[in-house]
Amino acid sequence: MRTSAVPTLDRFRQDLREYARLAEARYDPSVVDPVLDTLSDLWTGSVVAVRTTTHPVPERQVNARVMYPGEPTELIQTLRDAGLLTYTGHPMEQLLAEICAAMPVRAGVDVALDGGVEKIWLIFPELVSVERMLAFPGMPESARGHAAHLSRYGGRIGILGVDFAARTMNLYSQVFEAGQLTAADISTILADLDFVAATDEELALLGRTFNLYRTFSWTSPRMERICFPLRCTAETFPTHLDPVLARFVDEAPFADPETRGFVFYTAYGATSRYYKVQAEYLAAQRPTFPGGTEPQVTRD
């Protein structure tokens, strides 16, 4: 199996600046450089992705995600010791600790190019039942209030993410086969949640989604957002939907241009939708997939 070329840290810095330019987003070296330096071996030797959204330019961010090969608690402590992650007694901190102590977990971190460390991700090599996940101390009540929805659509949990900046949590379903979640299912989900409806074009695309994830907060009983991802090649990515998607796909730098891959997301909420694009920048190691199942790539 072909592996990607390995960039230098300076090359990666340059590429991040280019991603910010493509997205018309802010790049602040004063918050980015400390994270790059603290986790320097990861950015050039692990699994790295970079992404942005179709939010209006003033609200648009670019963030970079990197996977950590060791114990999640080591990653969290490293970030805290470096002053890059601050604990304040929020329930998400207990939630992370309880899960890491209870089961095998791999981890990753998201870094916003204008804000620094943003999210901690826990990936479950062994999928977790909805009931077990919702029982952990620190879990937001809004997630528990959607237990039936979580079980019906997607089933077992493959990834949990906590957003320290937004004070929210994401729950990702297990990976499933393309077509397992149908267009009719997606229409029903959005209607049941009283979210904006998907267009016919979106439904045609998302019939191949490989999982779904939901965003919850600790301050509202509502689900804040639901998102459907689709792995694509440059040729199958729906770049016509927004100019920033087209720029990202056409011009995104990669550690190895011959291994270019992308993920397209559509996110729905109560009043709006937006799209996301992720470039799979580097795969110096084999990534950990939830339950060991790799999402399929749409090639036609």
Short description, anyone?
The protein is an alpha+beta fold and 300 residues long.
Would you kindly provide a written description of the structure presented here, covering whatever features stand out?
44% of the residues are buried. Strands 1-2-3-4-5-6-7-8-9-10 form a 10-stranded antiparallel β-barrel, surrounded by 6 helices. The protein is α+β, with helices and mostly antiparallel strands and 300 residues long. The chain is built from 11 helices and 11 strands. 31% of the residues lie in helices and 27% in strands. The longest helix has 15 residues, at 9-23. Strand 3 and strand 4 (116-128) form a beta hairpin.
Write the layout of secondary structure elements.
Layout: H1 9-23, H2 29-38, H3 40-45, E1 47-53, E2 62-68, H4 72-81, H5 91-102, E3 106-112, E4 116-128, H6 130-134, H7 141-144, H8 147-152, E5 157-163, E6 168-173, H9 183-192, H10 200-206, E7 213-217, E8 225-232, H11 243-251, E9 262-268, E10 273-283, E11 297-298
Parallel strand pairs: 8-11
Antiparallel strand pairs: 1-2, 1-10, 2-3, 3-4, 4-5, 5-6, 6-7, 7-8, 8-9, 9-10
Q: Which stretches are low in confidence, meaning pLDDT under 50 for 5 or more residues running? A: none
Q: What count of helical segments does DSSP give?
A: 11
Structural class: alpha+beta
- What does the average pLDDT come to? 95
Order of neighbouring strands in the sheet with most strands = 1-2-3-4-5-6-7-8-9-10
Cα-atom radius of gyration = 18 Å
Structural shape: globular
Main β-sheet description:
10 strands, antiparallel, barrel
Amino-to-carboxy terminus distance:
22 Å
Helix content: 25-40%
What is the N-to-C succession of helices and strands?
Answer: HHHEEHHEEHHHEEHHEEHEEE
Q: What is the count of β-strands?
A: 11
Strand residue percentage: 25-35%
